[in-house]
Write a structure and sequence with these properties.
- By secondary structure, the protein is an alpha/beta fold.
- It has a single domain, classed as 3-Layer(aba) Sandwich (Rossmann fold).
- The protein contains 6 helices and 9 strands; from the N terminus they run βββαβαβαβαβαβαβ.
- The strands form 2 sheets. A 7-stranded mixed beta sheet has the order 5-4-3-6-7-9-8. It has a two-stranded antiparallel sheet with strand order 1-2.
- Helix 2 links the parallel strand 4 and strand 5.
- Helix 4 packs across helix 5.
C-alpha cells in the first residue's frame, strides 16, 4: 500500500502489490466476468471508455507512473465503474503471479516505451519470454492488441514474436493508421501522435 490523495471528496489510494495476496486479479472484482488487461494504461482514457461501454466485462489497468494513473482512478470512482481497477505496478511483477493461465480475454499494449538507445533495448517490455507469458494467460481465441508509433520497435515486435514461436497464434492482423479493436476511441498518446501526423502501427494476434 502507498500514498493517498484526496480530490473532490474521493480518496484515491496508490496501491502496490501485496505480496501476501494469494488470489488472482479476477478475485479483486465484485463480479466474475471476462477480463481485459491494459499494460501501460496511463491516464486510463481507453479503459474508462471500454469499461463504461462494456459493463459485462472486467478491466484491469497497470502502470508504474502514479502521476498519470491517479487520474484514471479518480474518473473510474466518479463514474461508478466497479468493473474497472487500476494498479500501480510493473507488468513483469503482476502477470506471472496474479494472472493464471487461460484467464484473460484481451491484453492491450499501446505505445510502450521503445527505449530508443541500443544500450537500453534490454529494458523493452515485449521480449520473446513476455510474449510467451501473455500467450499462456490468454483464453483460447483471446486477443493481444499492440500499437506503436515507432517503426523500428514494430519490427522488433515481429522479431520477438518469431523467436517466441509465431505458430502459437492462430491469426495475425496488421494495419497502419487504422485501429483494429474499438476504432472509436484512442489512448492519450494515440490521440497525441495522430494529431502530430505520425504513422501508427497496429498488430492484433489471436490465440
Amino acid at each position: 500500500m502507498g500514498r493517498t490523495f484526496a480530490a473532490r471528496g474521493v480518496r484515491i489510494e496508490e496501491r502496490r502489490i501485496d505480496r501476501t495476496f494469494a488470489g488472482a486479479i479476477a478475485d479483486l472484482f465484485p463480479t466474475r466476468q471476462p477480463l481485459e488487461i491494459e499494460i501501460g494504461s496511463g491516464k486510463g482514457r481507453f479503459l474508462l471508455h471500454r469499461a463504461q461501454a462494456h459493463r459485462d466485462r472486467n478491466f484491469f489497468g497497470i502502470d508504474y507512473r502514479w502521476r498519470f494513473l491517479k487520474e484514471g482512478v479518480l474518473r473510474a470512482e466518479q463514474r461508478g465503474l466497479t468493473n474497472l481497477i487500476f494498479l500501480k505496478t510493473e507488468a513483469e511483477e503482476i502477470i506471472p503471479h496474479l494472472v493464471p493461465p487461460a484467464s484473460v480475454e484481451v491484453f492491450h499494449i499501446y505505445f510502450p516505451d521503445p527505449w530508443h538507445k541500443k544500450k537500453h533495448h534490454k529494458r523493452r517490455l515485449l521480449t520473446p519470454e513476455f510474449f510467451k507469458l501473455l500467450h499462456a494467460s490468454l483464453v483460447p481465441g483471446g486477443l493481444l492488441e499492440l500499437a506503436t508509433d515507432n517503426f523500428d520497435y514494430m519490427i522488433a515486435f515481429k522479431a520477438a514474436l518469431v523467436e517466441a514461436g509465431d505458430t502459437l497464434w492462430s491469426g495475425m492482423r496488421e494495419t497502419r493508421n487504422e485501429r483494429i479493436l474499438d476504432p472509436g476511441v484512442q489512448t492519450h498518446f494515440e490521440a497525441k501522435y495522430a494529431r502530430a501526423g505520425r504513422d501508427l502501427y497496429y498488430i492484433e494476434l489471436c490465440k
